[in-house]
Amino acid sequence: MADNQKWYFAYGSNMLSDVFIRRRKIQPLRSEVAVIKTHTLCFNIMGVPYTDPAMGGLRPAEEQDLPVYGVAYLLSSEDMRQMIVSEGGGIAYKTELLSATLQSDGSEVNVNTLMGRHIIPRSYERLPSGRYMSLLIRGASEHSLPDLYQKRLLSQQTFIPGQGCRFKVGKWLFDGFWQRVAYWIEKGVGKFKDGEGNVPPWFLLVFDFLLWTMWYYHDYAHGVIWGRGDGLNRK
């Protein structure tokens, strides 16, 4: 492996070639099914209520947890940068170096993978959308991940939008403001990213303020009036 090449471990939507290769325009030099035995899949990346409440993340595995399987991609330094940019320039995730086992020959490799910037308790995790989970399920099937792991993905509970008029009006009102905020955040990532694909610290402070303002407003005001947008029944 050349000095300018690194392994990247994908466990979410980037497992799917339609997302990673076609949409994100990244060309892996090699791909292998792999497992990180020390960590497990969770949904602790806070998204946008009513649309994608949570995305996949990693947390240290406990005794009862299934280890996380995914795809290890060997990337050039430029494609690694492009991957970081495509995942938001480090606003939701941070890059961690972990050890993964390649399933083809049992060898251990160091992989760069993405973990949540914020420490979210299990009790505070939200539900992923059906749209998001379908990407993980298709990616796992495409790369023939172990049957037990595919069953775990298929059994994951997802956020199901309400069908009543009250809920639909609430979603429309919420999206009218917060989807615009999300759009401008995405534009800001493209404008302020550095040579490694990451945004500056001040941008992270602005993002965090907006993220938690949005979720507190959802949990204690909007969701109470119009119905929750994360699939949970918290009081």
UniProtKB/TrEMBL annotation:
SUPFAM superfamilies, sorted: Gamma-glutamyl cyclotransferase-like
InterPro entries linked to this entry: G-Glutamylcylcotransferase (IPR017939), GGCT-like (IPR013024), GGCT-like_sf (IPR036568)
Matching CDD domains: GGCT_like
GO molecular function, one term: gamma-glutamylcyclotransferase activity
Entry EC number(s): 4.3.2.9
Highest taxon of the lineage: Eukaryota
Residues annotated for substrate binding in this entry: Y8, F9, A10, Y11, G12, S13, Y132
Enzyme class: lyase
Catalytic machinery residues: E87 (proton acceptor)
Alphabetic keyword roster: Lyase
PANTHER family, per the entry: GAMMA-GLUTAMYLCYCLOTRANSFERASE
Full protein name: gamma-glutamylcyclotransferase
Source species of the chain: Penicillium cinerascens
